[in-house]
Amino acid sequence: MEVLYFSPMLLGLNLLIAVAIASTALWFMSRPIPGPGYWMAGMWMLITGVLMFIGFMVTRSPVLNVLGNALQLAGEAVFLLGVFRFMDRPMPYWIIPVSVAAIVGFNLHYWINAGNSDFLMMIYSLIAGLLPAQAVWVLLQQRSDAATRPARLLVGVCLFLYSVVTLLRAWFSADAWLTGQPYTPPNESFSYLLPYNFAIPALVMGFIGVTLMTMQRILASSRALEEELKRLATIDPLTGALNRRSFNEHFDREMHGAMRRQSSLCMALLDLDYFKHVNDNQGHQAGDEALRQFSDLCRREARATDIFARFGGEEFVLLMPDTTLEGARSILERLLSEVSRIEVIGPHGPFSFNASAGVSICHNGDTLDSFMHRADKALYRAKHEGRNRVSVEP
């Protein structure tokens, strides 16, 4: 035990346990982001394998030796699979059975035929050193996930260093095997302790990198969610037009701008004709589709400076800055002509519909309510006079 106490193996084991605990916390806090679950499982498997190998050093049990080596390689493979899972790449699950089968086969041959321990260490190190190659390639070649790029580079470099150190151990082991050097206990072997001094610190830094990747992914998702919430707060979810609250904010800005520039500002209320009949005869889904297509047309035909919004039901509003009444009428008549060409597929076959519009111009001292009241009055007149037309209220 005194030898183990002063060996880098104990420090390496403690570092691995700390990483395993941290990876468990990362998995718990970051669910359902894919990847951390693999890192957690891989680290605990790796630690179990190291503990079994330490047990082998004490007891010289072949079972602990075989299981320890197999679990360590399986843990490394599972950890690396977490990178593929995080990056949403095809999962090379085959690396687990191939790695485990290879080391178990050579390990059993070692015990059955009294093989060379340096040869066995060379095989183990070759497998462990080659495992990170695919993950390093994926991390360094990924282009689409800009949010995680700095952390991905850190993880890629750390896994590359881990691979280099482990392959270096394979080279030292191969040299010892080929030159017939005498057996050295693992806790005294330079090549065996090499990963504990260098590869495990690289793995720890790699875990810091995957933690940063996860945090960056969470932050990016949060920003996307924030943007979506902002969009939902301003957009009518059915038609994609601005909602009433957003329109009110735009109106205040356009009203003050028109007053400052001494320019004209027109407002039109638009309403689908006989929309209740559409819902009653074609169903609400077809009615919703009619609203969507009407909104799409209005937003396409509106000028860049116009403000288009849905006020509720089948009623919409179009605010037209720097536009005279005659200009507004011309825009609306052209728009209503296009509306009549819309064709919606309903449960009873295709159908079309019309719309009416009432428009007014802003006066000095107007409020939104007074301005809208005149436009609504004009809309009522358009409905009363036969629909599918534009009426003006000066």
Explained architecture:
The structure is a single chain. With 394 residues, the chain is of the alpha+beta class. The protein has two domains: 2-231, Rhopdopsin 7-helix transmembrane proteins (Up-down Bundle), CATH 1.20.1070; 244-393, Reverse transcriptase/Diguanylate cyclase domain (Alpha-Beta Plaits), CATH 3.30.70. Helices cover 68% and strands 10% of the residues. The chain has helices at 2-5, 8-30, 36-59, 62-86, 95-112, 117-130, 132-141, 149-178, 190-234, 244-261, 275-282, 284-301, 325-339, 368-384, and strands at residues 265-272, 307-312, 315-321, 344-346, 349-351, 355-361, 390-393. Strands 2-3-1-6-7 form a five-stranded mixed beta sheet, sandwiched between helices. The chain has a two-stranded antiparallel ribbon with strand order 4-5. Helix 2 packs antiparallel against helix 3 (36-59) and helix 3 (36-59) packs antiparallel against helix 4. The mean pLDDT is 88.
